[in-house]
Amino acid sequence: MPDAKLLTTAQAAEHLGIDRRTLARYAKQGLLKATVVLPSGHLRWDLDDIQRQMRELREQGKGG
Asked: I want to staple 44 with a disulfide (CB 3.0 to 4.6 A). Which of 24, 36, 48, 60 is the partner?
C-alpha cells in the first residue's frame, strides 16, 4: 500500500464524522486497527480500510 495516502487520526475521524478521541479510543480498545503505528505511537489510517472497519463495527452493533 505504498501509494495510499494515510490520514492522521483527526483527519480520519473528520471523514468518518466522529470525534478524533472516539477514533483513538476505538483503536486503544482494539475495536479498530490503524494501518500504521508510527514509532512515536501516532496512528495513520487508510480511509477505505477504516470505512470498512467502521461498517463491520456497526453491523456487529459495537460502534459508530
From this structure: 36
